[in-house]
Amino acid sequence: MSISEMLDPWRHAKSLEEYQSEMRTNRRNSLTDNFTPPTIGRRAWNMCKSLPHSPITWMFLITLGCLSALLGSLMDYWIFTIVSLRQRMILDLGEDSLASYLVWVVWTVVCGVLASSCGYFISTNSDGSGIPQMKALLAGQLGSSNVLSYATLVARCTGTVLSNASGLSVGKEGPFLHIVSIMADKLSSLAIFRPTADNFTYIRAGVACGVTAVFGSPLGGVLFSIEVTSQYYAIKNLWQSVISSSVCVLTFQIISVLQNDVLFTNTKFADFELGWELLGFLLLGVLSGVLAATFVKCVQWLHGMKIALLERLARPLVQRYLHVAVACAVTGVLAYPCHLLRWTDRVIVNDMFKDVPLANLTSIEQSTTFSPHLYLLLYLGFKFAITLVPCGLPLSCGIFTPLFTYGAVVGRLYGELLVVLVSPTVSPATYAVVGAACFASAATHTVSTAVIVFELTGQLSHMLPVMLSVLVAYSIGGMSSPSIYDVFAKIAGLNFVCADITDSVLAHKMAHEMMRPVPQVLTMHSTYADAVALLQGAVRRVDLLLVLSRLAERVTANAGSIEDDDANSTSTSMLHATPGPIGLEEAAELLLHDKALGRQTIQFGPPYDVLSYTALPINTYPPQVGYFVALSNVSARRTSVDGCDAQ
């Protein structure tokens, strides 16, 4: 007897009774194997995954929060190391020498070109802010194969570090949001996390984590991520974003304590009393809204001018590098003469939020050429220009941090003028806080910047003026110009992100964009949802039970009205064949069980044991109804078996 005949009961069985006996033995052995400790542990693990608030989901959110904080701290360390190297070179050459000026400009150009090279040679999806790409992805308007790839992750990390260390007036909130989203997608593809929830749920948690890791603001980061990346948001996913953001902030605080460093210093202001100052805060909101709208309009105009000039060049690679090199050179030339622009945005914001005299600030006390007020005014002019230049560059960079810094300086200068012109008891630092929130809110069309300011400063005494001023600035910015992120989306060719989904997406959506590949092979990690995709035309067991239940109700209701004996006997047979009427609670329980089962991995067991697969002819194979059953196959097999029995 060959090995195949020994393993196949159908080939060596002498009779149908012997075959059925061996099949029962195989099934009995399979049932015994299903109660082994590994099998029980695997089933318990899958059952744990199917819970509404699964511990596996909590494990994922905690892991994501810790990793995002660690990566954010690591990137900050890399940026600090590169910037420190440049600073040492300038100090060795002398800060006021021509050689140090050239080193600053060349450093800016080289780092900018290298950052742009990451987007060209590694992944083109790493160019730009990253927020428009994530908004398009979460809206279902952009595929995730390239946007969330490992190549994009490497290009984003490298390009963001180089662009922030180059001296350009850029931030890292948008790129880091994209980076953490890629991390969330790759973590969710692991076998331990994969079947627990929809992948986009994890990506949304990653978006919130990315914003939180930059600002150190858990609630403000969650709200900001919703405003800038979501057209529609499921509230049921909010708790996951809050948990991951809270863990991220906790990890970030632990790292800051170990490094003896803080992201932003807490402020202490006097309590706000309702009076004439409220009008001053509202006027600051108007001023910030007008300046922010002017900035966005200038970005649109400058990008149009750059496109008109670059179109004269034939080769796209030359256009790309020339665009970056010229922008970096202009930034280096404008930034170095103003000593205040050599400081990072983080230092500037912390200084503007300090309630001390302007001349005593760390970033201003080294300047003796101009008065502090004139120095801040010059800084605003240069900062506006060098923040405008990088907008639209083909490299990985953000925009929120420079906008926040610019608003803080505008508010500080506004408060200093009120001290001179109106009352010496005014606190200019409070106006710096309000100005930062107003300018960023008007440019990005978000109101969550107010919450970010509350959490950054740890100050709630000025909640009323901050909220009212932000609403005024937001209204003026919304009426006067589009959001800066919508402008970036148009620059990146994602115009449909800015429009209403009913007007643009539904009119241009193609069927192939919504199609997903159907798995051809079921593995140990496949879920029942994967098996459903293979069963075209099959009837699910829960649907079959509900249909038979309705049939039983109709047969029972019409039992007394049927006069034909044959019809009456047929209905009686149907009534005995059905499971009986199913109540609403039982039907709901069946549907919930069916939904939970779709997320579980397939448990291979009888009659799907390895030894049970035979070359049994379909005409004599006993009908077997599993979880999914194709009614046409069942009826055909039942007819064939009945025919064999009749013979």
From TrEMBL:
One of its GO terms (cellular component) is membrane. The chain crosses the membrane at residues 56-80, 101-122, 202-226, 238-258, 278-296, 317-336, 376-396, 466-485. It is a multi-pass membrane protein. Keywords: Membrane, Repeat, Transmembrane, Transmembrane helix. It is found in: Membrane. It holds the Pfam family Voltage_CLC. The keyword Transcription regulation does not apply. InterPro entries: Cl-channel_core, Cl_channel_volt-gated, ClC. Signal peptide: none annotated. GO terms for molecular function: voltage-gated chloride channel activity. This is Chloride channel protein. It comes from Aphanomyces invadans. The lineage of its organism: Eukaryota, Sar, Stramenopiles, Oomycota, Saprolegniomycetes.
